[in-house]
Amino acid sequence: MGKKVVVGAAIVGAAVVCAAAALMVRRRMRSSGKWARAMAILRAFEEDCATPIAKLRQVADALTVEMHAGLASEGGSKLKMLISYVDNLPTGDEKGLFYALDLGGTNFRVMRVLLGGKEGRVVKQEFEEVSIPPHLMTGGSDELFSFIAEALAKFVATEGEDFHPAPGRQRELGFTFSFPVRQTSLVSGTLIKWTKGFSIEDTVGQDVVGELNKAMERVGLDMCVAALVNDTVGTLAGGRYYRPEVTAAVILGTGTNAAYVERAHAIPKWHGLLPKSGEMVINMEWGNFRSSHLPLTEFDHSLDFESLNPGEQIFEKIISGMYLGEILRRVLLKMAEEAAFFGDTVPPKLRIPFIIRTPHMSAMHCDTSPDLKVVGSKLKDILEVPTTSLKMRKVVISLCNIIASRGARLSAAGIYGILKKLGRDVPKEGEQQKSVVAMDGGLFEHYSQFSASMESTLKELLGEEVSDNIEIIHSNDGSGIGAALLAASHSQYLEVEDS
């Protein structure tokens, strides 16, 4: 009787062990199945984002076609190709005191610059940042512009001994206004719509320079606007001041845009007298570029569909800092939902749009520690995922690489398209034609993998012979000092000095 019990217990014990082993095998198979699914999502995404050189050439060709169409007629292209009315870029000879006002968000900056010609360059500069009270962002036009003019008047009142304008001369201002404007001359432009949290109905359709001039009169400030500029045009001016070979400027930051110097006779929609310089700066508004050649994924389509401006700014949505981190979040969410990438439950934070910002993505992408601890700590801090394995962290790095490389390589294709439009993409017989592209923006400045990939791709597109004559430089703070320089190069007193 005792023997039977022992044997029975042994059989039961063996069955338990077998069941446990079978469960482990099933779990392993399930987890390896999930892992295989996660890898399939990764591979499909990588394939959809692919940017072989042949595709980049197609993108560049499509961009140049759109550039021609946008220059031919208003509304002829997705690219607005706006005439900036800037026909004289700084030469370095500018002298005197000039002011700049940079209004582009909830803060604005006022700046003064003392220019000393070729020898002195920027002798001295001072600036101040002012926060706009929230109620003024949704109030009336007069209230907002009066607040700005008062801040400007206070700043002028702090001019030091060495900062006074020449006797009998009015102070001149470069006005950077980073909202959609239909420019009608160098010193006038009507507001199309407010963005970035502003909503002041009575300014829409008004000339923003006129609004500022009236406000300066109200506060008794004797100053005139010498140039109304876009921040990308300012970056071009800032670059040209130090390097006469600068032909284009690109901003790669939260948003993206490009401007370049076009031959005036190559602008069919220009109906005025041709400028003496024979040149005109064109603000491309290239964020709105789209083409069937752009490698768009399901994640880009859903991001666009759910955005505030569906169907608009497609190029911007795949290359700029506002969106790169969000694309990463969307891919990780699919992996979490369909492949239990973060375990059996989807981290609730992963469902929050824009919770992963591009600086977070850059920090993870730059992680060179053996165990990728930065990736682990970012996932913990942002998504509240307590633990991650090394192979999971490696997947995150791969995703960062795919998203950043696509954005960087497409940015390079955009620059290549501009150079192509200007005929600077091929070697000129017996001519060393140097072309410099001035860059600004946090994405370009701080995301080192992005900027390195962009520069190497541009070299690849141009080929060795031409790329030796193309240089990318960092032109910092175009929206501030660039505006002051444009006020100087379009000063009302230039004619007096020249005569």
Q: What is the element string, with H for helices and E for strands?
A: HHEEEHEHEEEHEHEEEHHHHHHEHHHEHH
Total strands: the figure is: 13
Terminus-to-terminus distance: 126 Å
Helix content: 40-55%
Q: Give the C-alpha Rg.
A: 28 Å
Mean pLDDT: 89
What is the beta-strand fraction?
15-25%
Structure summary:
The protein is α/β, with parallel strands linked by helices and 499 residues long. 47% of the residues lie in helices and 17% in strands.
Task: Give a description of the structure.
By secondary structure, the protein is an alpha/beta fold. Strands 1-11-10-9-12-13 form a 6-stranded mixed sheet, sandwiched between helices. Helices cover 47% and strands 17% of the residues. A hairpin with a 3-residue loop joins strand 9 (246-252) and strand 10. The N and C termini lie far apart (126 Å). The longest helix is centred in the first third of the chain and has 47 residues, at 2-48. It contains 17 helices and 13 strands. The chain has helices at 2-48, 53-72, 117-120, 141-156, 208-218, 231-242, 298-306, 314-319, 321-339, 358-365, 373-383, 390-421, 442-446, 448-462, 464-467, 478-489, 494-498; strands at 82-83, 95-103, 107-116, 122-131, 171-177, 181-185, 188-191, 223-229, 246-252, 256-263, 279-283, 435-440, 470-474.
